[in-house]
Amino acid sequence: MTAHSAAPNSTSSRSRSSRSRSSRFDDARFIDAAADLGPIATRIVPIGVLTTYRVGGSAAIMARPRSVDDLLAIAATMRRFELPAVVIGRGSNMLVADAGFGGIAISLADMAADHRIEDADVVAGASVALPQLARRVVAAGLTGFEWAVGVPGSVGGAVRMNAGGHGSDMSACLVDIAIVDLHIAVSCRLAASRLGLRFRGSDLADHQVVVDARLRFAPGDRSLSEAELNEIVRWRREHQPGGQNAGSVFVNPIPGELSAGELIDRVGLRGTVLGSASVSDKHANFIQGSNGGSAADVVALIESVRARVAAETGFVLRSEVRLVGFDDVEVDVNPGVDVNPGVDVNPGVDVNPGVDATVGRVDEGDGTGGPA
Ligand SMILES: Cc1cc2nc3c(=O)[nH]c(=O)nc-3n(C[C@H](O)[C@H](O)[C@H](O)COP(=O)(O)OP(=O)(O)OC[C@H]3O[C@@H](n4cnc5c(N)ncnc54)[C@H](O)[C@@H]3O)c2cc1C
Q: Residue 45 in contact with residue 105, Cβ under 8 Å?
């Protein structure tokens, strides 16, 4: 095990940032923007605790839209006050800066928490949790989504990240999505082929909100699928650590052939500690945070692992973890999917799964339990 010394000043920089946070977010621009949004907005909401890292600060504004019209109102407020926005799904692939996020954090929990099954198609709201949906798909006698029982994200986050595992991913079942582009204030449906889905990524950008997704499966054997669900949950418990993390940090450089974890092990970084963050002893591609720890330590350890692996193996690893509010860290700036109003756009489409009386709500507490 390699032990690094703790990042200098990590505690004092935390308290400094929480002092500056309140003054920064008390700016008139944020106050006026929240007033502009009305009852769907709350000022200065801790969002780090909403992520599976459970570290990091607050959002200047948290918005909980209840409809596509509310999302379009957020688009207008963003433009009026020149504010960025980011959607928070289940926060299982996200790290929020200790100083927080100076923009509008959007939760779709009040508008996209339902799903409906239409023969072999499942239309799921963006905030539906993957493990619960995987179980519902199997219960409906369909196969092709068993892998998702082990991924603790939401449907929206899974589309954005092209989440996957156990030999499959979202691109294998995704037909199309309902999307709201907050930059051009357009809502439409887009075919999966338009999203630039690739290994653990897509062309979707922070201003492009997935509202629901249509997934297509094949008829299956329910008992075989249930056995597969159980096996996946067992495998995850055995091989992956619990605690505060975002799953695998780095994308495998050669999917199916060379994993990021192998490279991290090759350079001897398993178990490395940096301040409040550490490389998991159980899985070298998991970087753990800790209670009362800082996002700065997590990001510093990610950078340090990346630098060591690059220096010693020549592989430059790409982090899967979305960084929110890190103004000083180079973030992958992505122009987004081309939402071309001349092609696929149907602004009149009903993208609110909540209005259909036949939809089923996916309950909390129906998940896999334990670490995914
Ligand atoms: C223990 C553990 C195991 C994991 N295992 C896997 C695995 O096997 N395979 C895998 O692929 N991932 C895995 N992950 C990572 C994570 O669960 C997935 O990437 C998941 O799809 C993220 O979904 P989320 O809702 O948590 O997204 P968040 O973390 O909330 O957000 C991730 C990104 O998606 C964006 N986003 C979220 N919702 C929307 C939306 N509605 N519209 C537009 N953008 C949105 C966010 O803005 C952000 O950029 C694991 C994580 C953990 C903690």
A: yes
Read off φ and ψ for residue 228, nearest 5 degrees: -65, -40
Same domain flag for 268 and 285: yes
Rounded Cα distance, 111 and 314, in Å: 45
Query: Is residue 54 in contact with ligand 1, taking CB distance under 6 Å?
Result: no
- Cα 120 vs. chain centroid, distance in angstroms? 26
Domain-located, residue 15: yes
Find tokens 């199309």 and name the residue: 176
For residues 280 and 227, give the distance between their C-alpha atoms in angstroms, rounded to a whole number.
29
Q: Is residue 5 part of a domain?
A: no
Residue 20 annotated among the catalytic residues of the structure: no
Q: Is 278 a catalytic residue?
A: no
151 pocket-lining for ligand 1 (C-beta < 6 Å)? yes
Residue 98 pLDDT > 90, yes or no?
Answer: yes
**35-86 tens-digit pLDDT:** 999 999 999 999 999 999 999 999 999 999 999 999 999 999 999 999 999 9
1 within a domain of the structure (yes/no): no
What mean pLDDT is predicted for residues 112-118? 96
Q: What's 144's domain CATH number?
A: 3.30.465.10
Cβ proximity of 155 and 116 under 8 Å: no
Assess whether the C-beta atom of 306 lies below 6 angstroms from ligand 1.
no
Average pLDDT, the chain: 87
C-alpha 122/C-alpha 217 separation (Å) is 8
The reply to whether 230 falls in a domain is no
Interacting residues of 183 by C-beta distance below 8 A, sequence separation 6+: 75, 207, 336
Q: 303-327: string of b/e by CB count within 10 Å (b at 16+)?
A: ebbbebbeeebebebbbbbbbbbbe
Range of the domain at 291: 242-324
Q: Are residues 274 and 198 in the same domain?
A: no
